[in-house]
Amino acid sequence: DAKTTQPNSMESNEEEPVHLPCNHSTISGTDYIHWYRQLPSQGPEYVIHGLTSNVNNRMASLAIAEDRKSSTLILHRATLRDAAVYYCILSLETSGSRLTFGEGTQLTVNP
Amino acid sequence: NAGVMQNPRHLVRRRGQEARLRCSPMKGHSHVYWYRQLPEEGLKFMVYLQKENIIDESGMPKERFSAEFPKEGPSILRIQQVVRGDSAAYFCASSPEGSVNQPQHFGDGTRLSIL
């Protein structure tokens, strides 16, 4: 499975933007970039996904580098409720539909 | 719309007993996935099922574990003769199709504790 690399942890202040980076240098042309997050004692929650173009939804924005070897999840105004582990995952055609979760980034939001 | 429903939320079993975990996918979803999260570890894929068919069981332990998704009713993950190492959170997810271009929607899991 293609691997993603994320920082172990990041910190932000409430109501400030947060940029969560992800490197995926071995990505292939048909692999989608997915982001999920997991709050304590809950199941993973889908955040956003994309292939080549930047994507926006009500939760976040996804900025994908032109060469697709990296991407950034952007939370425009962090709230305390955004404190979670954020996972960047490549959804691979070759792996069928299974998601391969890495270590993720633990985001702490300070009041 | 109800999300993915898993029950029970917590399950306690003694070593050697059987554990049955249930998952009702979101309405209109015919694809179900099971993942396991061991204490202090990440989420690991176990099995992917479509109605009445196992599509990918590459993450399932070879013994004691089985999964089904019948035509009617919830998906069941069954663990026979449980051992302490089976203690974990088991998450189910569903999607309308098995496409890499679709998100998976997760339930809040069943936390299995083995005494």
Task: Write out key terms for the chains shown.
heterodimer, A: 111 residues, mainly beta, five-stranded mixed β-sheet, four-stranded antiparallel β-sheet, 9 strands, 45% strand, globular, B: 115 residues, seven-stranded mixed β-sheet
Description:
The complex is a heterodimer of chains A (111) and B (115). Chain A is mainly β and 111 residues long. Helices cover 0% and strands 45% of the residues of chain A. In chain A, the strands form two sheets. Chain A has a five-stranded mixed beta sheet, with no helix packed on it. A four-stranded antiparallel beta sheet of chain A has the order 2-7-6-5, with no helix packed on it. The mean pLDDT of chain A is 92. With 115 residues, chain B is mostly beta strands. Helices cover 0% and strands 49% of the residues of chain B. The model of chain B has no long low-confidence stretch (mean pLDDT 94). Classes of the chains: A mainly beta (111), B mainly beta (115). Chains A and B meet through strand 3 and strand 4 of A and strand 4, strand 5, strand 9 and strand 10 of B.
Oligomer: heterodimer
Q: What ranges of chain B have pLDDT less than 50 throughout 5 or more consecutive residues?
A: none
Q: How many DSSP-defined strands of chain A?
A: 9
Distance between the first and last residues' Cα of chain B: 36 Å
How many DSSP-defined strands of chain B?
A: 11
What fraction of the residues of chain B are assigned to beta strands by DSSP?
over 45%
- Mean pLDDT over the residues of chain B: 94
Strand-pairing-aware structural class of chain A: mainly beta
Order of secondary-structure elements of chain A = EEEEEEEEE
Order of helices and strands of chain B: EEEEEEEEEEE
Q: Indicate the low-confidence ranges of chain A by residue numbers.
A: none
